[in-house]
Protein backbone atom coordinates (compact mmCIF):
# COMPACT_ATOMS: atom_id res chain seq x y z
CA UNK A 1 0.00 0.00 0.00
CA UNK A 2 1.47 3.36 -0.95
CA UNK A 3 -0.64 5.83 1.01
CA UNK A 4 -3.88 6.06 2.86
CA UNK A 5 -5.63 9.38 3.33
CA UNK A 6 -8.21 9.04 6.10
CA UNK A 7 -9.53 12.60 5.85
CA UNK A 8 -13.09 13.29 4.77
CA UNK A 9 -13.52 10.98 1.77
CA UNK A 10 -16.79 12.69 0.84
CA UNK A 11 -14.81 15.68 -0.46
CA UNK A 12 -13.84 13.40 -3.37
CA UNK A 13 -10.42 15.08 -3.51
CA UNK A 14 -8.69 12.62 -1.19
CA UNK A 15 -7.48 9.49 -2.90
CA UNK A 16 -6.46 6.12 -1.59
CA UNK A 17 -3.65 5.08 -3.92
CA UNK A 18 -3.10 1.34 -3.98
CA UNK A 19 -1.11 -1.11 -6.00
CA UNK A 20 -3.60 -3.65 -7.39
CA UNK A 21 -1.15 -6.52 -6.88
CA UNK A 22 -1.33 -6.55 -3.08
CA UNK A 23 -3.99 -3.92 -2.39
CA UNK A 24 -6.55 -4.22 0.34
CA UNK A 25 -9.63 -2.09 0.92
CA UNK A 26 -11.42 -1.08 4.13
CA UNK A 27 -14.35 -3.36 4.95
CA UNK A 28 -15.89 -1.67 7.98
CA UNK A 29 -13.51 -0.16 10.51
CA UNK A 30 -10.89 2.01 8.82
CA UNK A 31 -8.57 1.88 11.82
CA UNK A 32 -8.02 -1.86 12.17
CA UNK A 33 -5.80 -3.64 9.65
CA UNK A 34 -7.70 -6.90 10.25
CA UNK A 35 -10.77 -5.35 8.63
CA UNK A 36 -9.09 -4.99 5.24
CA UNK A 37 -9.93 -7.46 2.47
CA UNK A 38 -8.12 -8.18 -0.82
CA UNK A 39 -8.87 -5.62 -3.51
CA UNK A 40 -9.27 -8.39 -6.06
CA UNK A 41 -12.55 -9.25 -4.38
CA UNK A 42 -14.13 -5.93 -5.40
CA UNK A 43 -12.34 -4.52 -8.44
CA UNK A 44 -11.65 -5.92 -11.86
CA UNK A 45 -11.05 -2.54 -13.47
CA UNK A 46 -8.11 -0.20 -12.85
CA UNK A 47 -10.25 2.46 -11.17
CA UNK A 48 -12.88 1.71 -8.57
CA UNK A 49 -14.47 3.21 -5.52
CA UNK A 50 -15.59 1.41 -2.41
CA UNK A 51 -17.09 2.95 0.74
CA UNK A 52 -16.48 6.50 -0.59
CA UNK A 53 -12.74 5.85 -1.02
CA UNK A 54 -11.13 6.02 -4.45
CA UNK A 55 -8.85 3.20 -5.47
CA UNK A 56 -6.49 3.30 -8.42
CA UNK A 57 -3.64 1.23 -9.78
CA UNK A 58 -1.86 4.28 -11.19
CA UNK A 59 0.99 5.38 -9.00
CA UNK A 60 1.68 8.52 -11.04
CA UNK A 61 -1.72 10.15 -10.54
CA UNK A 62 -1.26 13.33 -8.56
CA UNK A 63 -3.01 16.51 -7.69
CA UNK A 64 -0.41 18.63 -9.46
CA UNK A 65 -1.33 21.02 -12.23
CA UNK A 66 -0.30 19.52 -15.57
CA UNK A 67 -0.01 22.49 -17.92
CA UNK A 68 0.12 20.31 -21.04
CA UNK A 69 -3.12 18.64 -19.96
CA UNK A 70 -4.67 22.08 -19.40
CA UNK A 71 -3.85 23.02 -23.00
CA UNK A 72 -5.13 19.66 -24.31
CA UNK A 73 -8.43 20.06 -22.44
CA UNK A 74 -8.93 23.59 -23.75
CA UNK A 75 -8.20 22.46 -27.32
CA UNK A 76 -10.63 19.53 -26.94
CA UNK A 77 -13.39 21.79 -25.61
CA UNK A 78 -12.90 24.22 -28.48
CA UNK A 79 -12.99 21.38 -31.02
CA UNK A 80 -16.12 19.85 -29.51
CA UNK A 81 -19.20 19.82 -31.69
CA UNK A 82 -21.59 20.07 -28.74
CA UNK A 83 -23.71 23.14 -28.15
CA UNK A 84 -22.59 25.56 -25.41
CA UNK A 85 -25.46 24.42 -23.19
CA UNK A 86 -24.40 20.73 -23.26
CA UNK A 87 -21.82 18.92 -21.14
CA UNK A 88 -18.79 17.57 -22.97
CA UNK A 89 -17.49 14.05 -22.41
CA UNK A 90 -13.70 14.32 -22.58
CA UNK A 91 -11.22 11.53 -23.16
CA UNK A 92 -7.61 12.67 -23.26
CA UNK A 93 -5.13 10.02 -24.36
CA UNK A 94 -2.61 8.94 -21.69
CA UNK A 95 -4.61 10.59 -18.88
CA UNK A 96 -7.08 8.84 -16.60
CA UNK A 97 -10.62 10.14 -16.05
CA UNK A 98 -9.78 11.37 -12.54
CA UNK A 99 -6.86 13.49 -13.82
CA UNK A 100 -9.01 15.02 -16.54
CA UNK A 101 -11.87 15.67 -14.09
CA UNK A 102 -9.47 17.27 -11.61
CA UNK A 103 -8.08 19.59 -14.29
CA UNK A 104 -11.58 20.46 -15.53
CA UNK A 105 -12.39 21.47 -11.94
CA UNK A 106 -9.23 23.61 -11.75
CA UNK A 107 -9.98 25.28 -15.09
CA UNK A 108 -13.50 26.05 -13.86
CA UNK A 109 -12.09 27.48 -10.60
CA UNK A 110 -9.63 29.63 -12.61
CA UNK A 111 -12.40 30.99 -14.83
CA UNK A 112 -11.09 29.44 -18.07
CA UNK A 113 -14.14 27.24 -18.61
CA UNK A 114 -17.67 26.73 -17.38
CA UNK A 115 -17.75 23.32 -15.76
CA UNK A 116 -20.00 21.39 -13.44
CA UNK A 117 -19.47 18.88 -10.67
CA UNK A 118 -21.48 15.81 -11.71
CA UNK A 119 -19.90 13.64 -9.03
CA UNK A 120 -21.98 11.07 -7.29
CA UNK A 121 -21.17 8.84 -4.33
CA UNK A 122 -19.49 6.42 -6.68
CA UNK A 123 -17.29 8.68 -8.83
CA UNK A 124 -15.43 11.99 -9.05
CA UNK A 125 -16.74 13.62 -12.23
CA UNK A 126 -16.29 17.18 -13.44
CA UNK A 127 -17.41 17.98 -17.01
CA UNK A 128 -16.76 21.06 -19.13
CA UNK A 129 -19.55 22.93 -20.86
CA UNK A 130 -17.75 25.69 -22.74
CA UNK A 131 -14.74 27.99 -22.80
CA UNK A 132 -15.04 31.42 -21.19
CA UNK A 133 -13.58 34.54 -22.80
CA UNK A 134 -10.52 34.12 -20.56
CA UNK A 135 -10.19 30.49 -21.72
CA UNK A 136 -10.36 31.57 -25.37
CA UNK A 137 -7.74 34.24 -24.70
CA UNK A 138 -5.37 31.73 -23.05
CA UNK A 139 -5.89 29.16 -25.79
CA UNK A 140 -5.41 31.69 -28.60
CA UNK A 141 -2.19 32.82 -26.91
CA UNK A 142 -0.66 29.33 -26.56
CA UNK A 143 -2.22 27.59 -29.58
CA UNK A 144 0.95 27.87 -31.65
CA UNK A 145 3.36 25.03 -30.70
CA UNK A 146 6.42 27.33 -30.76
CA UNK A 147 4.75 29.86 -28.48
CA UNK A 148 3.61 27.04 -26.15
CA UNK A 149 7.13 25.56 -26.01
CA UNK A 150 8.66 28.97 -25.24
CA UNK A 151 5.93 29.75 -22.68
CA UNK A 152 6.50 26.48 -20.79
CA UNK A 153 10.28 27.00 -20.86
CA UNK A 154 9.86 30.55 -19.55
CA UNK A 155 7.56 29.35 -16.76
CA UNK A 156 10.10 26.67 -15.78
CA UNK A 157 12.92 29.24 -15.67
CA UNK A 158 10.77 31.35 -13.37
CA UNK A 159 10.35 28.37 -11.06
CA UNK A 160 6.74 27.56 -11.84
CA UNK A 161 3.97 30.07 -12.31
CA UNK A 162 0.19 30.28 -12.32
CA UNK A 163 -1.92 29.99 -15.45
CA UNK A 164 -2.54 33.75 -15.31
CA UNK A 165 1.21 34.44 -15.39
CA UNK A 166 1.65 31.83 -18.13
CA UNK A 167 -0.89 33.80 -20.16
CA UNK A 168 1.25 36.93 -19.84
CA UNK A 169 4.45 35.00 -20.68
CA UNK A 170 2.66 33.51 -23.69
CA UNK A 171 1.59 36.95 -24.88
CA UNK A 172 5.18 38.21 -24.69
CA UNK A 173 6.53 35.20 -26.60
CA UNK A 174 3.64 35.46 -29.06
CA UNK A 175 4.68 39.00 -29.90
CA UNK A 176 8.27 37.83 -30.36
CA UNK A 177 7.19 35.00 -32.70
CA UNK A 178 5.00 37.40 -34.71
CA UNK A 179 7.94 39.79 -35.08
CA UNK A 180 10.18 36.93 -36.27
CA UNK A 181 7.60 35.56 -38.72
CA UNK A 182 5.98 38.73 -40.03
CA UNK A 183 8.63 41.36 -39.40
CA UNK A 184 6.25 43.60 -37.48
CA UNK A 185 6.57 44.70 -33.89
CA UNK A 186 3.52 44.89 -31.67
CA UNK A 187 3.32 47.25 -28.67
Annotation keywords:
two-stranded antiparallel sheet, 3 domains, globular, three-stranded mixed sheet, 37% helix, alpha+beta, 187 residues
Q: Give the biggest beta sheet.
A: 3 strands, mixed
Shape by Cα distribution: globular
Measure the end-to-end span. Answer: 55 Å
- Give the spatial strand order of the biggest sheet: 1-5-4
Count of individual domains = 3
Oligomer: single chain
Average pLDDT for all residues:
75
Percent range for β-strand residues = 5-15%
**Residues in helices, as a percent range:** 25-40%
The structural class is alpha+beta
Count of alpha/pi helices: 5
Unreliable segments of 5+ consecutive residues: 1-60
> What's the total count of β strands?
7
Radius of gyration: 20 Å
Helix/strand order, N-terminal first? EEEEEHHEEHHH
How would you sum up this structure in a few lines?
The chain has 187 residues and is of the alpha+beta class.
Describe the protein in words.
The longest helix is centred in the C-terminal third of the chain and has 20 residues, at about 165-180. Strands 1-5-4 form a three-stranded mixed beta sheet, with no helix packed on it. Strands 2-3 form a two-stranded antiparallel sheet. β6 (about 115) and β7 form a beta hairpin. It has three domains: about 10-55, no CATH class; about 65-140, no CATH class; about 145-180, no CATH class. α3 (about 135-140) crosses α5 (about 165-180) and α4 crosses α5. The protein contains five helices and seven strands, in the order βββββααββααα. It is α+β, with helices and mostly antiparallel strands and about 190 residues long.
Amino acid sequence: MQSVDRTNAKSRRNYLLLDLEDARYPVEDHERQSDFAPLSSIAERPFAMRDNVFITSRTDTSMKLDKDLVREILLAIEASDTTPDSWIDLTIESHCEDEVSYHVMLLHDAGFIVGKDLSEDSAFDWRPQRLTYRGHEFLDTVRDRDVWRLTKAGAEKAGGVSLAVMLEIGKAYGKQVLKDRLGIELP
